[in-house]
Amino acid sequence: MAETLFKIDLNKPMQDQEVPGHNRWHPDIPAAASTDPGTDFRIECLDWTNNQIKNDDSADDIRDIDLTPCHVLSGPIHVNGAEPGDLLVVDILDLGTPKELDEPWGYTGIFSQQNGGGFLTDVYPDAHKAIWDLRGLYASSRHIPDVQFVGIKHPGLIGCAPSADLLAKWNKREQALIDTDPDRVPPLALPPLPQNALLGTLTGSEFERAAGEAARTIPPREHGGNCDIKNLTVGSRIYFPVYVDGAKLSLGDLHFSQGDGEITFCGAIEMAGYIDLGVELIKGGMQKYGMTRPMHMPIFEMSHLEPRYSSNIVFEGIGVEDDGTQRYLSITAAYRQACLNAIEYLKTFGYTDEQAYIILGTAPIEGRVAGVVDIPNAAVSIYLPTEIFKRNILPTEVPARTRSDAQLPRSPGEPDINETHVQ
Ligand code: ZN
Questions:
Q1: What are the pLDDT digits (tens) for 378-402?
Q2: All domains of the chain, ordered by start, with CATH?
Q3: What separation in Å is there between the alpha carbon of 421 and the centre of ligand 1?
Q4: Distance from residue 237's CA to the centre of ligand 1 (Å)
Q5: Cα 366 to middle of ligand 1, angstroms
Q6: Is the model's pTM score more than 0.90?
Q7: What is the three-class DSSP state of 53?
């Protein structure tokens, strides 16, 4: 079995682990372990909130969550020989719930508008929670009736450390956005926050300096990070740009399943678990493969694994706000409309608003861009697999062209053998 390079005790928060991980991005966070290119290894992870969410029937923990220690990440892993300009090739070999749990579980939260929010937080401002039983391939929830689906397990968050220059660039552009509306709730972006920062084994004045600069882990950025790609499952390969010596690969925020958009914010089925990875290096790969633009990103090869759901009901949205305000080619407004249309539809089958919202965030929903050129309306569609429901969620009020009293014609008695049949 692959060597475990990062071990987790599920009963302890990240800061109390034998080798602690981190919850900010900074080039000076010391490596927790090192490995050579060409090796496979295991990494264990806590859930992204550092054990704050309980397997119970109250959403108080979601409402009162402290987001300052999030996301807790395992790593960094130093890959020997990696230098800025290289590509770190990462294969996802396996991923699962913690081996020590007899009854693995995960959770989904709708964050309160006052504490985190989510894509539809203006419509659904209160905190809610769903607990999921993770049994073999399947997820089902005692809080959401008649739904069961195959999870496409993936790391929500995986990336290499930024260089000092790249980090400074992030902080500058995100602060400029915050400055356009500094009092907004929820905020436009999250600036560096020393409170509850965990930077591996860094301490003292080194820690103080780095904690004041280190980037929050919430957004995806040029190094990867919180990419939340729902199909990034076992069998996928990632090509990460390397910005610092050793690459310093970190990851966490394991998801059992997620719908495109992860719309409730704590929106996937969040879990602790393990992931097996293999790493290789392409020297000078950034230049070789066109990662030369200022806003280049990692490149992915997606896995061949996917649940065999072939029937969908599809909802569309266009870039117009609820009050009729016309937006110009806004995919965000369009995605919002598609989600709200899907929720309204699911409500006619007995789901509550929040149950429907959580289904869209967790089940393998496909979000697709239909058009971004037909001024003024961007158009998106979301594909909801009908086979994840144990009830029929298609419209049944369609007049049938088939007859329920239909019978086969039958000729009783012996065949008339005297009759000659000419073909
Ligand atoms: Zn997550």
A1: 999 999 999 999 999 999 888 888 8
A2: 3-301 (2.60.120.580), 312-388 (3.10.28)
A3: 72
A4: 20
A5: 17
A6: yes
A7: coil
